[in-house]
Amino acid sequence: MSTETLKKPAPAINPKLIAPFVNSVRSVFQTMVKVETTVQMPRLKADPCPSYDVSGIIGFSGDVIGNVVVSLQMAAAKSLVAAFAGMPIEAGTPDFSDAIGELANMIAGGAKKHLGLAASITVPSVIIGRGHQIARLSDVPCIVIPCVTPAGDFAVEVNVKQVNQPAN
Amino acid sequence: MSTETLKKPAPAINPKLIAPFVNSVRSVFQTMVKVETTVQMPRLKADPCPSYDVSGIIGFSGDVIGNVVVSLQMAAAKSLVAAFAGMPIEAGTPDFSDAIGELANMIAGGAKKHLGLAASITVPSVIIGRGHQIARLSDVPCIVIPCVTPAGDFAVEVNVKQVNQPAN
Q1: pTM score over 0.90
Q2: Which residue from A5, A96, A132 is facing B128, i.e. has the nearest CB?
Q3: Is the Cβ pair A85, B1 closer than 8 Å?
Q4: Which of A97, A135, A136 sits opposite B137 (nearest CB)?
Q5: How does pLDDT run across A108-148, given as a tens digit for each residue?
Q6: Which residue, A21, A121, B63, B140, has fewest beta-carbon neighbours within 10 Å?
Q7: What DSSP string runs through B19-41?
Q8: Using an 8 Å Cβ cutoff, are B118 and B167 in contact?
Q9: What is the interface pTM, i.e. ipTM, of the complex?
């Protein structure tokens, strides 16, 4: 680990891996959360990366490795969880974390179906902490899908790469 | 999601799933990090859970699902990364995150070998943020393995459950 590695850029991501995530975000927010969501153009993750208050993380293994992270400011998290659950849920309770985890799970699960690759996804991890960052690892490509809703903005980070060619 | 679910206790964890993680933490810190580490008695995760500055998360899927989290205060993270890498590494750089991710990966990978189950592990996610918490999800058991080193304390959280019986 030399200091020279600090300067290396993020690795490129395969655009074919991104479309299923964009489509899944749109579908989940239209049909499950029922909040109007504008999905902006995906872009490379900035360095230093933005900070959030709540994150739900789902890991991928198999032919696609990496993770997908749904990161929200607290105000947006509370509004979206209330819309999703049909009632306000106090932040910091297991129910609140479950709802954030389930949002991440639906986005990752929806995308997985359309990747056309053999991948497993993990149960969610949920992070709560004012102004935390999901660090960029040097060998995992990072794409951010910015999302705008009337309840506040959030971002879906797709940090995945394909390690095997599909069987068909 | 009713308010009654807020009161439900964490589900029980199979003790046989914990020993491989305890042994792996000992082995990684003795042989790779080369820092004297006292592994304390594993205990159920407290609610509300303690907060940390740096966390490395590895997901499990397959016959064991869940995740393992290595959570550190920043002072301990800097000291342990310096011991592991053989030189100080600035916090917030990709090299620092890579080192934290690699620590989590070695602990999860070492434990996976001794679980005797078919499980896949993900690449790490690394969270950096002063005083963040890893939320407790209502259906994932949570055990904390507290670890004490001269460089500062850290904790390994094991949030896993077995979903299939082993083949043999």
Answers
A1: no
A2: A132
A3: yes
A4: A97
A5: 999 999 998 999 999 999 999 999 999 877 788 889 999 99
A6: B63
A7: HHHHHHHHHHIIIII----EEPP
A8: yes
A9: 0.85
